[in-house]
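Homework-ish question, so no full write-ups if that breaks the rules, but can someone show me the predicted structure for this set?
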Amino acid sequence: MLSYIAKRLIAGLITIWFIATATFIAMHLVPGDPLMNQKAVSAEIRLNLERKYGLNKPVVEQYFIFMGNMLRGDFGISYTQQNRKVNDIIKDHFPVSATLGILAVFFAALGGILWGAVTAIYRNRLPDIVIMFLVILGISVPSFVFAALGQLLLVNINQFAGQSIIPVAGWGSLSHMLMPSMVLGLGTMALLTRLMRSSMLDVVNEDYIKTAKAKGLSPLRIFFRHQLRNAILPVITVLGPQIAAITTGGFVVELVFAIPGLGRYFVQAVQQLDYTVIMGTTVFYGAFLVLMVIVVDILYGFIDPRVRLQ
Amino acid sequence: MTHSSELSATDFLPIHQETKPELIARPSLSYWQDAWRRLKKNVRAIISLYLIAALAFFTLAGPIIWNVDPALQDLNQISQAPSLPKQATLVENYSPWSVPVDSSLPAEPDEIVDEIDPVVAFRLAEAASTQTVRLLWEPLSDAGGYNIYRNESKPEGFNDLGLPLASISAGNQVGYEDRLNLKAITYYYSIVPTDGFDEYDQYTSLKVEPMLTITVREALERNILETQRDAVKGSVITLEFHPFGTDYLGRDMLARLMQGARVSLFIGIVAPLIYVSIGIIYGGFAGYFGNRIDQFLMRFADFVVALPFLLFMILFKISFGIGPGESGILPMLLALVLLLWPATARLVRGQVLQIREQGYIEAARILGGKPGYLILRHIIPNTMGVILVTLTFAVPSAIFTEAFLSFIGMGVAPPTPSWGSMCNEGVKTMLSHPHELFFPALFISITVLAFNLLGDGLTEALDARMRSRE
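A: Not a homework solution, just the prediction itself:
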C-alpha cells in the first residue's frame, strides 16, 4: 500500500511538472505583453519593470526561474494588483471556491444517490419517468441558465416575503452559499443520478442479492446492506474528479452570483494578461486536481477491498 | 484403382440441382443493419434524429428562407418581444396641433373653491393613433388647471391613475396632446382638475385604443417603403417582422439564431470529428503495438488529461490569439482538439487491446497482413460502435464548452453571434426582455438534448450483448 501511494505521488509530481510547463509555454505564446496595460512609460521605466519581473532574460532562463520559484511555492507578484502576491490571492480566494465546490458536490452526491436509488426501485414507473425527465433537463440546460433562473427565484422569494431573507448575490453567510452551490451541483447531480440508476440496476441481478433473498432477509435490509452499498462504488470513483472539476469550473456561478472566488480572479487575470496570476492559478488548480484523483483512488482502496488486492 | 483415362471435362460439371433445399433461417443481418433495426425501435432516438435533421435544416437552409441580415441594427426596434406580423396604417407626417383654449373663461379662477365637479365630456378630438392621442374636455369654470394621467389598466381608484403625463396650469385649456411612446394597446386616460397647485379628489377616465400607424417619413427611414411615390396615405403596410423579436441593438433574433447555429454547430461537430479521429489513430497504434510504445504514448495522454480543462481552454484560446476582425472560432476549435483527444485515445486503446487477441486478427496476420492494414481494415471497424457513441456524446459537450466560454466573454468575439454569446447578452436584460435569453438557451438545450438521446439510443443499439437478450 505504501509503495503504491509513493508511486502515485511521484507520478503526480511529474504530472504537475507537465502542467506547469504547458502553462508556461501557453502563456509565452500569448500575443501582446504583460506590461501593455501599464500607462505609457518611458523606455527606462519599462526596462526597470522588465527587470523587476525578469522579462528581460531569455525565455529558457525565465522558465528555469519560474520552475525554481514554483518549487519553493512562490508564484511571484501580480502584474496588475499592486504589490499583491499571487500566493495571497490564492490564499484569499481559493477557500471561497473550495467551499462552494464542496457544498455543491455534497448536494450533488446526496441528490444523485437518492434520486438514482428511487428511479431504480420504481423502474419504468411514474417516479422513474419524472425524475429521469428532470435529469435529462439537468444535463441539457446550460449552467448559466440555471444560475440566472436561481437568482430570479431568490428575487421572487424576497419580493414575496417583503424583505430580503436570502441574499441574491455576494458571499459570507450560509444563506449566501445555498443557491449558488445548488446551481453549481445541478449538472453533476443529474450525472450521478444516471450513474447510480444504472449501477443499481446492475447490482439487482447479482448472485449475492439472490442469495440474500433466498436467506430470507427483509427487502429493506437487502436494499441498504447489499444493493445500495455495492451500487455506490462507481459513484464514489467519479466523485473525486467531479470535486476538482466543480471547484475549478465555478466561473459562471461565481460571475452571476458575484462570489469572490478564484475562478472570477482567473477570468479577470486573463483579460488583463496578468502573467503571474494566470500561471499561479493554473498550476495550483492543476496540482489540486491531480491530488484529488490520487486521494480518491487511495480512499477507493479502503472502501472496496477488491481493489486493494490488485 | 483402375485407369480411368476416359474422364473428360464434362464429368466435372456440377450435377443439376433439381429442387432447392428448404431454408430455415431468417435473412442474415449485418451488425450495422441490426443496430439500425434496433435504433428504429427506440422512439426517443428517432425523435432526436428528426430534431437533429430539423436543426441542420434550420442552420443550412434557414438563412436562405429567412433572408434577413443578422448584423443589421435598428435602434428604433430595440428589444422587441416576439410577435406576429404587424400591419400599420400609413399616415401623413406629423403636423402640430394648437391646443384649444376657451377664451371666455379666465386662466385662473377668481377664488379657490373647496369642492369641484368632475370634468365632463372627456373625449378624443380625432381618432387615436400611435402617432398622437388628442384629448378634449369641457372646461370647469372654477378650476385652476388639470393633471393628465395615463394607465395601461382600468384605474381602480384615485391612487391608480398611472403615469402622470402633464400638469396644466390654466383652467381654460380644454385640450391635451399625448405623444409619449404610444403603443397599439389599450390606455386609460384620466383627468383630475386642480386649483392651480393641488388636485381636487375628482377624476374622469377615458378608454383609448390607439391604432398602429406609421408616418411616411418613418416608413422611408426604416426602408419599409422604397420611394416617396409608394406612399399612399391610408393604405395598410406590413412592418418589419421579427418572429423571435429583436435584441438589444434591434437586430433580428431569428437571423442571429441561424447565424449563431452555424458557429455553435460548426464547433460542436467539427471539433469532435477532428479530435476523435486523432484519438482513434493515436489509441489504435498505442493499443496495437503495446509494450514500450503503448506505455510512452499513454503516459503522454495521461498528462494531457490531467490539465484542468476549462482553464487551459481559456489559456490556449488566448494563446492562439484573435486578430482584429476575426471571430475566434478557429482558436476555440484548436483548443478543444488539443485538450480532448486523449479521452478517445484511451478508449480506443482499450478496445484495440481486447480485439488484438481475437482469432481473426491472428488469421489475418498469418495471411501476411501488415500492421497498418490490420489496424485500418480489421481493428478500427470493430471499434466503430464505441467510437460512434463517443462522437455522439462529444457533440453536446463541445457545444456546452463553446456556450460556456462565450457566456463568460472568452468565446467567439462580437459581432459574430453564437448561441453562448447571445445568452451572455440576453442575461443582462433577463427581467425586462426574457426572450433574448430564452431563445438561444432553448436552442442550446434542444441540441444538447437531441445528441444526448441519440447517444443513449446508439449505446443500446450497438451493444452486441443486447442482441442475445431479445
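Now go work out the reasoning yourself. Hint: The first strand of chain B starts at residue 87 and ends at 91.
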